Amino acid sequence: MDVKKRSGDKAAQEMIEHMAEKGQENIWDRLDAQSPQCGFGKSGVCCRICTMGPCRISKKAPLGVCGADVDTIVARNFLRAVAGGTSAHSDHGRTVAEAFVAAAREETKDYKMKDIAKLHALAKELGVETKGRTANEIGIDVGEIALAEFGKSRGTQLMTKRAPKPRQKIWEKQGVVPRAIDREVVEAIHRSTMGVDQDYLSLLNHASRTALADGWGGSMLATELQDILFGTPSPGVGEVNLGVISKDEVNIIVHGHDPLMSEILAEAASLPEMVEKAKQAGAKGIAVSGLCCTANELLARHGIPIAGNFLCQELAIATGAVEMMAVDVQCVMQGLAKVASHYHTKLFTTAHQAKMTDVEHVEIDEKDALNIAKRLVIAAIDNYKNRGEIKIPDDKETGVMGFTNESIKYMLGGRFRASYRPLNDNIINGKIRGIAAIVGCSNPKVPMDSTPLAMAKELIKRDVLVLTTGCATVACGKRAMLDSNEALKLAGSGLRQVCETVGIPPILACGSCIDNSRLLVATAEIVAEGGLGEDINELPLAGACLESITEKALAIGQYFVASGVKVFFSDALFPFQGSDNVMEYLLGGISNDLGGQWALESDPVKAAELMLEHIEAKRVALGLKDETERKLLGMEERREL
Amino acid sequence: MSRIIASAAIKGAYSIVDQAKKALAAAIEKNGKDCHVEFPNTAYYLPVIHSMLGLNVTTLGDLEEVIGEIDGLLPPLVSEDVWIPYLGPALDAGMATLFAEEIIEACKYLDGPNPVRGIWLGAADDVILRERGIQFVDGSAPGFAAIVGAAPDVQTAVDIALKCQQRRLYVFMSGSTNGTTFSEQLIEGGVQLGWESRLVPFGPDTSSTVYSLGFASRAALSFGGVTAGDATRNLIYNKDRVFAFVLALGEVTDEWYATAAGAISYGFPVIADSDIPEILPTGVCTYEHVVSNIPHDNIVEKAIEVRGLKIKISEVPIPVAYSPAFEGERIRKEDMYCEFGGNRTPGFEWLETLDISEVEDGKVEIIGPDIDTLEVGGRLPIGIVVQVAGRKMQLDFEPVLERQTHTFLNEAQGIWHMGQRNINWLRISKVAYEAGFRLEHIGKILHAMLHDNYSSIVDKIQVKIYTEEAKVLEMQKKALASYEFRDERLAGMTDESVDTFYSCTLCQSFAPSHVCVITPERSGLCGAYSWLDGKAAFEITPTGPNQPLAKGAPIDKKIGQWEKINEFINANSQGMVAQMSAYSMIVDPMTSCGCFECISAILPSTNGIMIVNREHPDITPCGMKFSTLAGTVGGGNQVPGFIGHSKHYISSKKFISAEGGVGRIVWMPKALKEELAKSLTESAERAGLGGAAFLDKIADESHGTSEEEIMDFLTTNEHPAMTMDPMF
Question: What is the predicted ipTM?
Answer without folding.
Answer: 0.94
